[in-house]
Structure formats: C-alpha cells, structure tokens
Design a protein that fits this description.
By secondary structure, this protein is mainly α. It is built from 9 helices and 2 strands.
Length: about 190
C-alpha cells in the first residue's frame, strides 16, 4: 500500500514476494533453494548473530547473485529502528507492539504498556548500571528498547512485521537520512529493478 500511495507498482505485480527466512542458518538454506529455482532474491537480514560462518554464508549468497541488505555487526532491525526514528514514531511503534499484544492476549493495554516500559528500564540498568539516569528517549535507553523488542519477539511474525513496516514506510521521510532510511530505500530500489 505504501508503494502504491507513492505512485509505485505493487510488489506482487512486479513478481516480488516476501518470505520468512527463519533466521540463521536456515535463512541461507532457504535462500539457496530460491536461487537454485531461478529466483532473484534480496536477503534483508539482521547482523546480531555474529561469527565467521555467518559472514561466510552472507558472502556465499552474494556470490550466487543475491542482494544482501544488512546492518553493522551486532545490530538487528529492532535496534536500528529504536535508535534512528524520531521520538513520536518510536512512541507509535511501542503503542503498536502493545496493541498487537492486546489483540493476542486480551490483557488490558495499559498493563501491557507498563510491562513494556518496565522491561525497557530493567534492560537499561542491566546495560548501563543503576547509577545512570534513565531517560526514556535518550540514546542509551533507545538501545535498551531495541533489545527488548528484539528479545521479546514483538515483531517476529510476518503479520506483525508487516504492520511495523507499514508504520515505518508511511513515515520514512522523517528518517530518510539515517542508516534505516538508507536501507529501506535500498530495498525499495531492489524491488523496482
């Protein structure tokens, strides 16, 4: 829908589909199956799983012709998002996470929001120590928020990540000059190829 609203053709009309890669190492096996079947693929992946084998597999996929869009070593999409979107968009993302959890569990949304805030604060103190002031949208707290969203699997299912993607693409002009904006633009350009 975002592409259509910006005057671009729908991904499916271009023959592009999204497939869940299941994380490393399965995503490389999965990618190989598509490549061997003659598909052009773009592997949009996290880089929080580190090690020589992971980097080797990414390079191997690239040599087979796949486009790989990833982050610096140790980073995942949740950490990149939490560190690079403006405060109001991060608030919208946290509200979306709470709304999705409410839909799944029927727990009161205010309880979910409090649990999410408490988890972020707890992770912050684990990372930086209790002597450091916790300010919710500070650079350090954003790191904690990203880890909580990643570790808690808040957006790990396709239907959840599609909702997150819609929110991000609808507001991408507000962070277009960040690494997140650049990678989303790179993905969009690959889709148009």
């Amino acid at each position: 829908n975002n592409r259509i609203s910006k005057g671009k053709e729908n991904m499916s009309h271009l023959g592009v589909i999204c497939a869940l890669g299941f994380g490393s190492p399965d995503m490389f096996n999965y990618s190989n199956v598509f490549i061997k079947a003659g598909f052009n693929i773009c592997l949009f992946c996290d880089s929080d799983i580190t090690g020589k084998n992971f980097e080797y597999e990414k390079e191997k996929i690239k040599k087979l012709g796949a486009k790989v869009i990833d982050w610096q070593e140790g980073e995942c999409i949740e950490s990149i998002i939490s560190e690079h979107v403006p405060d109001n968009i991060l608030a919208d993302i946290l509200n979306l996470a709470a709304m999705i959890k409410k839909e799944e569990t029927n727990i009161d949304i205010e309880i979910i929001k409090k649990e999410l805030r408490d988890s972020c604060k707890e992770r912050f103190y684990k990372l930086f120590g209790k002597e450091k002031d916790y300010l919710f949208y500070s650079k350090d707290s954003r790191k904690a928020i990203g880890q909580v969203l990643n570790d808690g699997g808040w957006f790990k299912r396709i239907d959840k990540s599609e909702r997150l993607g819609k929110l991000l693409f609808d507001s991408s002009d507000k962070f277009k000059d960040t690494i997140l904006g650049q990678r989303l633009d790179e993905l969009s350009k690959w889709i148009d190829e």
